[in-house]
Amino acid sequence: MPTINELASTNTITGSDQFPVYVSGNGDARKASASTLLAYIQSAWMDPTFTRVTASPTLAGFTLALPTTANSLFVLLTPTGTMATGTIVLPAAASAADGQEIVLYTSQEVTALSFTLNGATALNGAPSGIQGGGSLTLRYDALSVAWYTTDKPVSVGSGTADYLPKWTAPTTLANSIVRDNGTAVAIGGAPSGDRLTVYGTVQATAADESNGFNAINSSSTAARFPGYRAYNYAGAFAATSETVFEASTARGTFAAPAALLSGDRIGALSFWGHDGAGFFSAASVYARATSNWAAARASELYFQTTNAGTTADRLRIAPTGNVELATANTVFNASGAGQGVRLPASPSNPDPNVLDAYEEGTFTPVYNGAGIVGTVTFAGRYQRTVNQVTVDIQITVGAASSFTFTSATDWFDNFPAAVVPAADMLAGNALADDVMFWVGKAGATFRAKFQKSAGLPAPFQPASTSIRYTLATYLV
């Protein structure tokens, strides 16, 4: 028989080709086919022996103990339905072989899946749950006395059509509150006809003035568009159901808000325009606290416009309801009896075309003379518009009484300061029988008098009568 190096070479081996082998059990040399040799190699090295383990849990919270063996395990789990929890007890580490594997397949979801180490130091990378039809593979490393996950499901869980999924655990997916039907998106409810619908409160926490809710119109036309629109279909409306925009402001932090202090701005509605280089403030409406809100709540509202690049307050609504133009010039008083346009009592605007002073009221004239018999009362009224004044005096004579101007020296004084001219003057009007009712000022004295012509009887007012004497308008 020739030696092996004397044999002819071949590049093709078939299953029936023979190989010499030494059979240690018989102590002699024999032959084996290539097919027999291949089957042995596959069985011993490339295809390890798997022990089949089956279980069909019926209750959530099941525990499945795997057998203590050095063989690899194929675990076929067929629960009767979705299991909320389940525990797999791994083979005892003292008996596990290096490289031993466990392949687990389940036909139903196990939402929370846990493992008992049974002597191992760790199980690395194991999922916390497994979906129906999912599988995972564990491999034992004797050197570290630990199991390792070499293959596991990408996601676990089930969902509903049109719902976006969310992670409820590191490897578990479920429905989120976001729904997309291919045409519209909704958060917290079903999509409507609008592109985006949000059910509930929307909040934007902005770190600076460039953030928040931005409504941008990129149209090249100047057509108006809805930047923010609120609809309310509440049916029967309550007194507070009309809110469409609200700015809530506090000191402190979001978690621990604190009371406002006087002078704090509460909120603003701002309008900006572009001048070719950038955006600048054009106008705004803002609210400001006028008291410390921990003690009392008071606020004012300001309207601002911009002129020649300068933005300033133009209109103020005070806490009492008064409306002030240009900060305290013209006031619209909404405090009840004083409703209307209220001007200050003295002029404060040098422009002669501006009506900026008005006052009216009553006073009690003081009579200096000897013409009273019985009960006689005096009442005065005045009206001043800028520098023009009208004054009248009403004389009321009681029963069994009379009033007579006895001489040209009789007079009335005690006039309010608003009707007293700054310089000496004389103004009056004629009454019947050549009698003159007039007011005059000479030096520091301002008086109202009756003046009769010489030879005529003195003016007389009988009992139970009332008469009003009105002066012509004069200047102060």
Q: What would you note in describing this structure?
A:
With about 475 residues, this protein is mainly β. It has four domains: about 100 residues, no CATH class; about 35 residues, no CATH class; about 80 residues, no CATH class; about 120 residues. The strands form nine sheets. A seven-stranded antiparallel sheet has the order 18-19-20-21-22-23-24, with no helix packed on it. Strands 3-5-7-10-11-9 form a six-stranded mixed sheet, with no helix packed on it. Strands 25, 28, 29, 36 and 37 form a five-stranded antiparallel sheet that branches. The relative contact order is 0.05. The model has no long low-confidence stretch (mean pLDDT about 80).
The tally of beta strands, per DSSP, is 37
Termini gap: 153 Å
Number of helices: 1
Give the helix/strand class. mainly beta
Total number of distinct structural domains = 4
Considering the chains and any ligands shown, give keywords for the structure.
476 residues, 4 domains, six-stranded mixed beta sheet, 37 strands, 3% helix, rod-shaped
Topology:
Blueprint: E1 18-23, E2 28-33, H1 34-46, E3 50-55, E4 62-65, E5 72-77, E6 83-89, E7 101-106, E8 110-116, E9 122-124, E10 135-141, E11 146-151, E12 163-169, E13 172-180, E14 185-187, E15 196-198, E16 251-252, E17 257-258, E18 265-274, E19 279-289, E20 299-307, E21 310-317, E22 323-325, E23 330-333, E24 340-342, E25 358-363, E26 366-368, E27 372-373, E28 376-385, E29 388-397, E30 402-404, E31 411-413, E32 425-430, E33 435-442, E34 445-452, E35 460-461, E36 465-470, E37 474-475
Parallel strand pairs: 3-5, 4-6, 5-7, 6-8, 9-11, 14-15
Antiparallel strand pairs: 1-2, 7-10, 10-11, 12-13, 13-14, 16-17, 18-19, 19-20, 20-21, 21-22, 22-23, 23-24, 25-28, 26-31, 27-30, 28-29, 29-36, 29-37, 30-35, 31-34, 32-33, 33-34
